[in-house]
Amino acid sequence: MACPRTCSRILGLSLGTTALFAAGVNMVLLFPNWDYTYLLRGLVGKHAILGSGLWGGGFMVLTAATLISLMGWRYGCFSKSGPCCSMMTSLLSTGLALLGALICFITSGGALKDGPFCMFDISSFNQTKAWKYGYPFKDLKNRNYLHDNSLWNSTCLEPSKAVVWHVCFFSILLCISLLQMFLVVIHLINSVLSFFCSLCEE
Fold first, then answer.
1. Would you give the distance in Å from CA 153 to the centre of its chain?
2. By three-state DSSP, how is residue 131 classified?
3. Among 39, 60, 150, 178, which is 20 to 30 Å from 99 by CA?
4. Residue 4 has what pLDDT?
């Protein structure tokens, strides 16, 4: 039984760390080029404003990580909990962490698909010299901005390096959520093994 508990401690710490990183990355996305004025003017993309890295991959996963750690250390009410109670808590923490990580993953994937929210020239669309804020890559046909670096600096005029900022941090958020899902699967396997070991001991 010592081995599953040690595994729970490590998993709880790992998930908690990834949750803090996810929240930090989402916070950075709210301030393109470290400029807070875009947020004040409402010129931040909907995916960053949604904050799935804060409440999904962040708070929900951190709550689950805390539960997992408490079970691993047998702290408080978990000190004398039976196998059924531990299994129920494991399932609850697994579901919570998986849901949070999945929300963060879907939002990050959608953000990378739509591209950054930035100011771009719409003269190519309606033959008049004009600029507006929006998603210039969202309706781009026959070209994928992720594979065509030449579009990165030529399309988005403001904020500067908006595409690099967007792609970089949403890719990190996507990787963090994938790692969280992987850790949750390991936790579920560990919980099932712990449950059967407890029944065998009894």
1. 26
2. strand
3. 39
4. 66
SS3 119: strand
| pLDDT at position 82 over 70 | no
Q: Could you give phi then psi for residue 156, rounded to 5 degrees? A: -85, 120
Contact 95, 62 (CB under 8 A): no
Q: Taking Cα atoms as reference points, which of 186, 35, 19, 36 lies closest to residue 104? A: 19
Q: Given the DSSP bridges, would you call strands 131-134 and 118-121 parallel, antiparallel or unpaired?
A: antiparallel
Residue 150 C-beta-side C-alpha neighbours within 13 Å? 1
Q: End-to-end CA distance of the chain, in Å? A: 12
Lookup: tokens for 139: 């309706």
Is the confidence at residue 78, as pLDDT, over 70? no
3-state secondary structure of 33: helix
The b/e string for 129-163 (b: 16+ C-beta within 10 A; e otherwise) is: eeeebebbbeeeeeeebeeeeebbeebbeebeebb
Mean pLDDT value of segment 154-174: 91
Nearest to 198 by CA among 90, 78, 86, 76: 86
Residue 122: CB atoms within 10 A of its CB come to 15
pLDDT tier for residue 1 given thresholds of 50, 70 and 90: very low
Residue pLDDT, tens place only, 86-121? 778 888 889 999 999 999 999 999 999 999 999 887
